[in-house]
Amino acid sequence: MAEGIFAAEIVEECRRRGLLAGAYALRRPRGATFLRRLARDLAEQRKAPRVLLRRGVALLRAEPAVLRRQTGLGAEAARAREVLHRVAGLLASHPHA
Predict the structure, then answer these.
(1) Which top-level group of life is the source organism from (predicted)?
(2) Domains contained in the chain, number
């Protein structure tokens, strides 16, 4: 299992080696992601609120391009609930489950 913004980088190689059970890029409401990220970053107090707000808006605007890139690398865009459902199905059908 790999997760994170760079996980899609290994999708094709995993598929080529027969190691890929699924590859998903989370598709979330952009506004909710912006607010969660901003709340987390403000709580951590690592940067000035103005900087965090500017960065958050930039990430909000970039999110569609990030999702397009991940799907272009072979990940399937899906909502978190759907990914959890699919992973549960994979685990249930695994012979060592």
Answers:
(1) Bacteria
(2) 1
Residue 66 has pLDDT above 90, yes or no: yes
Query: d(Cα 40, Cα 58) in Å, to the nearest integer?
Result: 16
Q: Which amino acid is at 47?
A: K
Residue 42 lies in a domain: yes
pTM of the model: 0.80
Which has the closest alpha carbon to 23: 86, 65, 68? 86
Asked whether the beta carbons of 9 and 72 are under 8 A apart, the reply is: no
- The values of phi and psi at residue 67, to 5°, are -65, -40
Task: Tell me whether residue 88 is exposed, middle or buried, using C-beta atoms within 10 angstroms of its C-beta: 0 to 12, 13 to 18, 19 or more.
Answer: exposed
Print the domain residue range for 58: 7-93
**23 in a domain, yes or no?**
yes
